[in-house]
Design brief:
Blueprint lengths: L1 E3 L5 H16 L5 H10 L2 H9 L3 E6 L2 E9 L2 E7 L8 H14 L4 E6 L4 H6 L3 E11 L2 E11 H9 L2
Parallel strand pairs: 4-5
Antiparallel strand pairs: 1-2, 2-3, 3-4, 5-7, 6-7
């Protein structure tokens, strides 16, 4: 079940984000980049997104296993707890967020980390631009701006 996150979900969303970053990012990003991610996905930022109604969680048997947010037509902070990856929950929350966005916009944008890049390609996103952003002490945060338009969404999800 996917539902809008509530203020009391802030801690569990933060926990999912941190556990996923620790497991997935340590092998491909410098410690300074991971620190940047931690600051970006701070409790305060998560709480603000929840307060704005921008954050959703996916629950399985009453347990929060993943999260995703959106701002206008931009998807952000999509994380599935490492113990629940590989069961389709990432696809489920992405399709939910895409539908919300594409009901009002012509396309969806997101910034993909190195670890999420193939997932997004497999789900119909195209690469727009790759950015190498310096964050600290010569550490570089590499991410890719990706897009899926409404036509591609319906073609992939409804064979139209």
């Amino acid at each position: 079940m996917i539902r809008q996150a509530k203020e009391q979900d802030t801690g569990i969303v933060h926990d999912i984000v941190c556990k996923t970053m620790e497991r997935a990012y340590s092998s491909c990003y410098a410690p300074e980049v991971i620190d940047y991610f931690r600051d970006y996905h701070s409790m305060d930022n998560i709480c603000n997104d929840i307060s704005n109604g921008d954050t959703y969680i996916i629950e399985v048997d009453g347990k929060c296993v993943g999260t995703g947010s959106h701002h206008g037509n931009y998807i952000s902070r999509v994380f599935i707890h490492p113990d629940f990856q590989g069961y389709g929950y990432g696809t489920e929350i992405m399709e939910y967020l895409e539908k919300l966005i594409l009901d009002e916009h012509e396309s969806v944008f997101l910034h993909s980390s190195i670890t999420g890049y193939q997932f997004y390609l497999d789900h119909g996103y195209s690469e727009k631009e790759t950015i190498n952003a310096p964050v600290a002490d010569d550490a570089v945060f590499r991410y890719t701006i990706m897009e899926k338009n409404k036509h591609d969404y319906y073609k992939l999800n409804f064979n139209e």
